[in-house]
Amino acid sequence: MSQKKRLVFFGSPEFALPPLKTLYLGGYDIVGIYSQEPKKKLRGMKKIETPVHKWAVSQLLPVFTPSKLDETSLKEFKSLNPDIAVLFAYGKLIPPSWLDVPLFGFVNIHASLLPRWRGAAPVQRAIENNDKLTGITIMKMNEALDEGPIISSQKIDITNETTGKSLIDLISQDSCSLLFNSLKNYLSGKISPKPQDNSLSNYANKIDKEETKIDWMM
Predict the structure, then answer these.
(1) 22 vs 27: CA distance, rounded Å
(2) CA–CA separation, 148 vs 150, rounded Å?
(3) What's the pLDDT tens digit per position in 148-187?
């Protein structure tokens, strides 16, 4: 990149850190990091920051944890003057009014091969449905959920030993180089996002607590 791009990252859990660190070390100007607000946990109900929040503070990067993405937080976001926003497991829906603020829009790391599994739990639903193949999709976000045009993707095999934890960890690691190279080509105009085939989509519903119960009598 001839000039450092001003980048804002949206993410919360531990597995969102590898791609964030890759962008940070790769020369992007991280002008802001958005993460879920600290939650009361453990004994004493002390407020605990997300892993992304903690890392950002350790690097002296500005962190924003709005409880709502309202007009006040939108004004704050605009003041960062971002060229690009990257999202991975942030945990909140991005309002349409935010999407066009960055010059190059919002780019999302999605944990499946779109349009196969759209929605909240693509990793778990792929395993549950005995898919033999999943992957990572880098997509430009639009107003519809996980329906934005695809910038790039990478396949990952699902084996009999694959678990939800092992798969999301693999996606987290493999997304680093895919994201970095894809962003470079996207920002330079070498890649044009391609629309998804909506007829091939399925919705990956959020995992309900009832689904996690084990019937030991079976």
Answers:
(1) 9
(2) 7
(3) 999 999 999 999 999 999 999 999 999 999 999 999 999 9
- Which residue(s) pair with 24 in the sheet? none
With 0.90 as the threshold, say if the pTM is over it. yes
Q: How many CB atoms lie within 10 A of CB 14?
A: 16
Instruction: Using DSSP, state whether 64 is helix, strand or coil.
Output: strand
How far, in Å, CA of 130 to CA of 141, rounded? 28
Parallel/antiparallel/unpaired status of strands 6-11 and 84-88 = parallel
CA 31 to chain centre: 18
Distance CA 181, CA 135 (A): 16
Query: At 38, phi and psi to the nearest 5?
Result: -55, 135
Q: What residues does 54 pair with on adjacent strands?
A: none
Nearest 5°: phi and psi at 201? -90, 150
SS3 35: coil
Which amino acid is residue 176, in one-letter code? C
Amino acid at 34: Y
Tokens of 74: 């939108």
